[in-house]
Amino acid sequence: MTPIRCDECTPLLPLYGDGELDAAQALAVEQHTADCARCKARLTGARELRAAIRRCAPYYRAPDALRQHWDSSPPNAPVSATATAPSRRWQRWIGALAACLVLSLAVNTRLLMRDDNARLSDELLNAHLRSLMADHPADVQSTDQHTVKPWFAGKLDFSPPVRDLASVGFPLAGGRLDYIDHRKVAALIYRRRLHVINLFVWPSAASFSLGPDQQTVTGYNVIHWRADGMEWWAISDLNTTELEDFARQMRKSL
Amino acid sequence: VTDELSRKRYEQLVASHLDAAYNLARWLTQNPDDAHDCVQDACMRALRFFGGFRGGDGRAWLLTIVRNTCYSFLQRRQAGGAVLEYDDECMSLVSQEPSNTDNPEVYALRETDARQLEAAIMALPPEYREALVLRELEDFSYKQIADIAGVPIGTVMSRLSRARELLRRRLGTEESP
Lengths: 254, 177
What we know:
The complex is a heterodimer of chains A (about 250) and B (about 180).
Chain A: H1 6-9, H2 12-17, H3 23-35, H4 37-56, H5 64-69, H6 89-133, E1 140-141, H7 145-152, E2 172-180, E3 183-192, E4 195-203, E5 210-217, E6 220-227, E7 230-236, H8 240-253
Antiparallel strand pairs in A: 1-2, 2-3, 3-4, 4-7, 5-6, 6-7
Chain B: H1 2-16, H2 18-29, H3 32-49, H4 58-79, H5 88-94, H6 114-122, H7 126-137, H8 142-149, H9 153-171
Helix pairs in contact in B: 2-3, 2-4, 3-4, 4-8, 6-9, 7-9, 8-9
């Protein structure tokens, strides 16, 4: 490996100290600092500062009062259904057994859904970013829902509900075909000031409605809900409050 | 039953990262009572958002909420007229490029007294302070800090480097070339 120069080494020093370099880069830094007094001094300085911070800066642990009372909200559900009315012993056992069964089922489905959702939201984020990279996120650019909706006819095996939400501050900007989760989906584009919202819609396989669930994926807000037989995914760099408002308005309009 | 289960998971998550939550809030709000309130507030919000938590790094997830709660609080506090006490000297240094000379910069760290160092960190602007606390006290990677603070990794790197630069000057450990 070619040795690195001083000017190449300098910007790597803090990354080296923070353990952010890969093995090859770290080795290059080590080789350089073995010979270069200047870089070596910098490295030592950084190390001493870190040691001083870790030694002297207090780590504030949660006080007992907080540990006991951080949860000031009332529980949503009673902790145990069997704790109240006195019942016969066998009833309790059956109840507990049933609860265990339901619980393990719920855990399994929940875990599977979690994995699935995480993969999906990654895929959606990529689709969102792709749409922003191209200058025209929309294949059909129109603020008129009666232009956008028919555009999808013949391109999809379902008819996505299209609503213009300009009256509540989210004007429709157009629509586009996208490919998510191994199928063609409708992507509706809305705007809020300079922010672009991609709303992905496709028919749901599930029979029950869900959400809305908000999450953040690398700085982007994602809201998912399931209603009217459709899966809805809104994604944007818009702040959480406004994106939640968008989701609310969309659900209201249907 | 799912409600109850997710409630349990939420309680476990918060309980296991309560120290980290309080530590960050304490450094950001600079005072124990406000830190207490912010963490409590953040826990309520965490409960509301828990349905959106897809598993993974629970500590980073909780700290993101704590961090945002603290910033809303700081904004309200600032709007209410209370002045945030940042070091004037530090603030003026922010715009300054680090000295770039050909002479070796030798950092000879003197015996640092804990109070002096704590005060120096507290005097940093909050964005710098948070990056430093998350890096040095919580051992988060650049990527995790970037996610928590909602900024690109490059911004994390420059905030960290400014924070350290300011600390060195403040502690007088930077020997002029």
